[in-house]
Amino acid sequence: MLNVLVVVDMQNDFIDGALGTPEAVAIVPKVVEKIKNFDGTVLFTRDTHTSSYLYTQEGRNLPVEHCIKGTEGWEIRSEIEALRKTEAINKVTFGSSVLPERLLMMNAIEHIDSITFVGLCTDICVISNAMIAKAFLPEVPISVDAACCAGVTPESHKNALEAMKMCQIKIENE
Questions:
Q1: What proportion of the chain, given as a percentage, has pLDDT over 90?
Q2: Tens digits of per-residue pLDDT, 151-169?
Q3: What's the pLDDT band for 36 if we cut at 50, 70, 90?
Q4: Contact 43, 6 (CB under 8 A)
Q5: What are the distances in angstroms from CA 4 to CA 39, 40, 72?
Q6: What is the edge-to-edge ordering of all strands in the sheet holding 170-172?
Q7: Contact predicate 123/159, CB 8 Å
Q8: What does the radius of gyration of the chain's CA atoms come to, in whole angstroms?
Q9: With 90 as the cut, is the pLDDT of residue 1 above it?
């Protein structure tokens, strides 16, 4: 029996840095507890940009430099980083192309029974990666722990949860 927890972008810039919110700060202890108590494999994604971020399509649409590789803002929050036992998956856009490859490889070795997502931001990277996982592993139950996620705004967080429900992703602790 293999359960997977995917911790999405719990990085300083999304918590209390360039794009931080009070809601993101509030979920940090909950994410720490979720990881500590999780019975299975824990994977981590890390938003990763370069100094040319502002010249990318994302940078032109969101002109706030964040998660520049090697900066403090790029780093996974220290209390969460201390729990990491697997290599973080660096991703250059909202959804990771490496995450589904890793999940498929894991599933080929040992059937994945469930995948749970937590992290930031519900309405951008969490929803993107949950939907990608659903596309690659449509028969694996996928859930999102709403209490361990925060969006750009509380309203966009709720909208993302509703959208994922419609795509048969189970929402826990709403």
A1: 99
A2: 999 999 999 999 999 999 9
A3: very high
A4: yes
A5: 8, 6, 27
A6: 89-91, 41-47, 2-8, 112-120, 142-150, 170-172
A7: yes
A8: 15
A9: no
Measure the CA–CA gap between 40 and 3, rounded to whole angstroms.
5
Query: Which tokens belong to 147?
Result: 């209490």
User: What is the distance of C-alpha 62 from the center of its chain?
Assistant: 19
Residues sharing a CB contact under 8 Å with residue 103, sequence separation 6 or more, in sequence order: 4, 112, 115, 133, 136, 137
The 3 state secondary structure assigned to the chain is CEEEEEEECCEHHHHCCCCCCHHHHHHHHHHHHHHHHCCCEEEEEEECECCCHHHCHHHHHCCCCCCECCCHHHCECHHHHCCCCCCCEEECCCCCCHHHHHHHHHHHHCCEEEEEEEEECHHHHHHHHHHHHHHHCCCCCEEEEEEEEECCCHHHHHHHHHHHHHCCCEEECC
Residue 109 to residues 2, 12, 103, 104, 105: CA-CA distances in angstroms? 10, 34, 10, 9, 7
| Token pair for 20 | 């931080």
* Spatial contact of 26 and 120, defined as CB atoms under 8 Å apart: no
Residue with structure tokens 């918590």? 15
102 token code pair: 């890793």
Closest Cα to residue 144, out of 164, 128, 125?
164
